[in-house]
Write a structure and sequence with these properties.
The complex is a heterodimer of chains A (about 180) and B (about 525).
Chain A lengths: L12 H17 L23 H5 L7 H20 L1 H34 L1 H4 L2 E3 L2 E2 H50 L1
Antiparallel strand pairs in A: 1-2
Helix pairs in contact in A: 3-6, 4-6
Chain B lengths: L2 H25 L7 H6 L6 H12 L2 H14 L1 H28 L4 H6 L4 H34 L5 H52 L4 H12 L16 H17 L4 H4 L8 H32 L2 H7 L6 H9 L6 H42 L5 H25 L5 H25 L5 H20 L26 H18 L6 H13 L5
The chains are: A mainly alpha (about 180), B mainly alpha (about 525).
Chain lengths: ~180, ~525
């Protein structure tokens, strides 16, 4: 697919921002006739409303209901097919393998902190160094763990998920378009 | 407060209003009113811009004045708020931001309705979004009114009432004329102003103590009259078990509520991709985390430099701790430096309130027009007419918020914010998480999840000591208090989740495999995202 050359390299700020710009403009490219134009039951109006051009064009051209229904079925099959594909399951499991333990971890740490602060103020008031006590360390620790987890998540998503997700995105859209074309 | 304070603060504030009105006119020139433009600002903001705007939307005057004030009065217990408000962003980052950006168009209901029978789900999610927004809005309006009374010395009822009306009128102008684009730029300007003000004050506090945080804490503890216990939890929430459960309830509402706030969710639609949504959240976590760390320094600084007695003397809830601190840091009352810093802090606080109310008004007008009006009318509205409805809705919501703001004038601001978070966590979060992650979730489950969280949350508040049965309540004369906690989160959030589960397992409808596949594929890959 010729979209591949716009993919992010997974590197620093520069390439990333160009990648974002690219992603952002992709749907407007879809407005040009003959390319990736897909009409989608998900939306009641034109899916890609970049600037004002969408207004002039108006909503997606009406299709006879029977054909619309058949196309919807075809598109639904595409999503089921993608959902069962190994590539998608890999992206999903990478996401879950990071997010599930991370959510469990920070939520337990936060609830533990709140409950300890309200039930055991004596323990929290124990001095550590100078005026700094256990409570202060724990509170600042919450800030620190939040920053660290944010960094780890952003890094994990950038290195382990973004590229595969973008590939799947274009493949799915391509398949949806084909399915629609085939059904008509 | 002298006349100098008032004049300078009014001048600075007028300058901010002029700048924001200028932004509104400038961005709305030559723009056709497409829905994409009005609700999402054309979706072309950069992650950094959106990160600042999210921070601007989130850091309300309740945080700036309220948390610092609580720390100045109660020491460590005030700090627990800062932690909850920040940690909540991990829920947003991990579970909500990217997936919502990929699945939805403008509102929370878009995400849920994609999998379900559209009409009942939209009506439910739209109703709860508007309820949360109005509660949050009233909190900010009440805050604006009392801020004027406190800072400008005008304790008269009329000054307070006119401020509420003025704030309401301004927010309606911003939103109905400028839409998301103007609102976003106002948030960005406000975030920069608020952060610069906070950094300046923090630096001045630390310079006063020669950069020695330890000495700052020791001085604060000594001046508070509580000694070491000022630096440990328990001064405010350490009493009986009711107070402790109340705090746990509040902590739960804070950490789970952020991800259900409609005005925060709508911000993710202003960037082009899920990746950009993630990077905006990373920016905003950095900014918000830095801000809450600084409010801790300001709070202990106010305790150490101004002293809790002086703070309490000015305002029993502690809301004036930061302005008083600014006055002292600038050289004390009567000095030029003190006057200038005080005026700046007052103007920044106003700017904060204006920006936050604009964001909430926009989100709730989107819910009214895009969810409620569109489903209840049952006709294919053209995008243009939907925007017209949204503009009208902004005016209507403005009027409602002004009226409620005037009625609720004497309610505690922090309580109203906590309540808005509790309702958001009970009504919006369960339905959002179930639709994103639960294969078997059904329409009935979605509707039950929303109402099963919303109704208990509101009923428990009506039955709580906030409304009746204690000297500080809204109606001190009567007593229909049956629920001991002020914040309903501890009960209503689990109820929202249980109701969603119960509705799903009891419903006759089979979950739609294909539409679940569509939601899952879209949410994780961004296929077909607008």
């Amino acid at each position: 697919m010729h979209y591949s050359n716009g993919r992010p390299g997974g590197g620093g700020g520069g390439p990333e921002s160009t990648a974002d710009q690219y992603d952002g403009c992709a749907p407007s490219a879809a407005e040009t006739p003959g390319s990736l134009r897909y009409d989608d039951p998900w939306y009641d109006a034109l899916a890609s409303g970049w600037g004002e051009s969408c207004d002039a064009e108006g909503p997606v051209a009406a299709v006879p209901p029977v054909r619309e229904e058949r196309e919807r079925r075809a598109a639904a099959d595409v999503y089921l097919e993608v959902q069962r594909s190994a590539a998608f399951r890999e992206v999903r499991s990478r996401y879950r393998r990071f997010v599930v333990p991370a959510v469990a971890g920070f939520f337990a740490w936060y609830i533990g902190y709140v409950v300890t602060a309200t039930t055991a103020p004596g323990l929290m008031g124990r001095p550590v160094a100078g005026a700094v006590n256990v409570a202060m360390i724990a509170g600042l620790g919450q800030f620190l763990s939040t920053f660290l987890l944010t960094w780890a998540y952003a890094r994990h998503a950038r290195l382990r998920r973004d590229r595969a997700a973008l590939e799947l995105r274009w493949e799915t859209q391509e398949l949806t378009r084909e399915a629609r074309g085939g059904a008509s | 407060m002298t006349d100098n304070h008032q004049t300078l603060a009014l001048l600075l504030f007028s300058a901010f209003v002029a700048v924001t009105l200028g932004i509104t006119t400038w961005v709305s020139r030559n723009r056709q009113g497409s829905a994409e433009e009005f609700y999402a600002g054309g979706r072309l903001f950069t992650p950094m811009e959106n990160g600042f705007a999210i921070a601007g939307d989130y850091m309300s005057a309740a945080s700036f004045l309220g948390i610092s004030g609580l720390i100045a009065l109660y020491g460590y217990d005030g700090m627990l708020y800062s932690v909850g408000f920040l940690v909540a962003w991990l829920v947003v980052l991990f579970l909500v931001a990217e997936l919502v950006r990929n699945c939805g168009r403008f509102t929370l209901a878009d995400v849920v309705a994609a999998r379900m029978s559209e009409r009942p789900v939209r009506i439910a999610a739209g109703t709860s979004s508007v309820t949360v927004s109005v509660l949050y809005l009233v909190a900010q309006m009440v805050g604006a009114g009392s801020l004027v009374a406190l800072l400008l010395g005008g304790t008269s009822e009329a000054a307070q009432a006119w401020t509420v009306v003025g704030v309401g009128a301004l927010m309606v102008i911003y939103v109905s004329l400028g839409g998301m684009r103007a609102t976003t730029w106002i948030q960005i300007v406000k975030a920069v102003l608020l952060l610069s003000g906070t950094v300046a004050l923090t630096v001045l506090v630390l310079v006063r103590f020669h950069g020695d945080f330890d000495r700052l804490l020791v001085t604060a503890a000594e001046r508070s009259g509580h000694g070491e216990s000022f630096l440990a939890p328990g001064l405010k929430y350490g009493g009986d078990w009711t107070a402790r459960f109340d705090f746990i309830s509040l902590g739960l509402a804070l950490v789970l509520g952020t991800a259900g706030l409609p005005h925060i969710l709508s911000r993710f639609y202003t960037v082009p991709t899920a990746r950009a949504a993630r990077r905006s959240v990373v920016w905003s976590i950095g900014l918000i985390g830095g801000f809450y760390l600084m409010t801790i320094v300001l709070g202990f600084g106010a305790a150490a430099i101004v002293g809790p007695d002086a703070v309490r003397g000015s305002n029993a809830a502690g809301n004036t701790a930061v302005p008083l601190l600014a006055l002292d840091l600038g050289g004390g009352a009567g000095s030029t430096g003190g006057t200038v810093l005080f005026a700046i802090v007052a103007a920044v606080a106003f700017a904060t309130i204006l920006a936050v109310v604009a964001g909430i008004t926009l989100a709730s007008s989107a819910s009214v027009a895009h969810d409620l009006y569109a489903s209840l009318r049952r006709r294919h509205a053209k995008p243009r007419s939907e925007v017209a409805v949204a503009r009208t809705a902004a005016v209507g919501i403005g009027v409602v918020a002004i009226a409620l703001g005037l009625l609720a004038r004497d309610l505690n601001v922090a309580f109203l914010v906590g309540l808005a978070f509790a309702v958001a966590a009970s009504a919006n979060l369960p339905v959002l998480l179930y639709s994103l992650f639960w294969r078997g979730f059904t329409t009935r489950g979605a509707v039950w999840a929303v109402y099963g969280g919303l109704i208990p949350a509101l009923v428990l508040v009506v039955l709580s000591p906030v409304v009746s049965g204690s000297p500080e309540s809204l109606f001190p004369g009567v007593d229909f208090q049956y629920f001991p906690l002020q914040n309903p989160g501890l009960v209503s959030i689990p109820l929202g989740f249980v109701a969603g589960w119960l509705g799903t397992v009891t419903s006759a409808e089979d979950p739609d495999e294909a539409r679940h596949a569509e939601t899952e594929v879209r949410s994780l890959t961004g296929a077909g995202a607008v």
